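Trying the structure run again after the queue cleared.
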Amino acid sequence: MDRDFTGTCLGRNGGGLLIFIRKTYIHTLEVCSQMEAMLLRVTHNKCVSNFLACYKSPSLKNVEFIEFLDAKVSTIDLSEPIFIIGDLNMDLNSVNGKLLQNFILDFNFQNFINEPTRTQAKIMKRNTLVHNSSTLLDVMIHNKSLISSTVVIDCPFSDHKFIAGSIKLDKQKPNECVTWARNLSEKNLNLLSNILANKDFSQMD
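Done. Tokens:
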């Protein structure tokens, strides 16, 4: 997905999203034209999972991106696994990530990346370090417990680090669905009808 300058997410020249996956695993693919995001529905081991890969430009308002996430997640059957992965440029370790923190709590999700993924150092003259900041911008958000492990790895050409996770996708056991109901036989229906016919509903009228 190349960066689209006509959509909401304007940014610098170049960039975009890239996903490598075997074609036979892809059930559906949606490219979100108004955001730098791709939604994949994947089938593996007879298990259906949803992957939402995102990049939020720093120029895009946090509230606009959270509204996009909320709307997109609301279209997904959350009985299925969902993984939200990407650089969201909202530091979960600061007030800048408050909206994202609330989004995760509202949907009962969990972010499995717990250490900073970007480190910046500002060097003044004479090699004097005056500022060093660490932020958690790159996430792996999930609604179940299929992520067994994650790791944050230094990157030699960027101040962002790599994130990686191990996901176990096994055939899902069907959830037993129980519906409680009363057995309304013809006899019981007639009984209820007679009871209602003898009630005074004039107060409601």
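Strands lie at 26-32, 36-44, 47-55, 82-87, 110-111, 118-124, 128-135, 138-142, 147-153, 162-167. Worth checking whether this holds up in the mutant runs.
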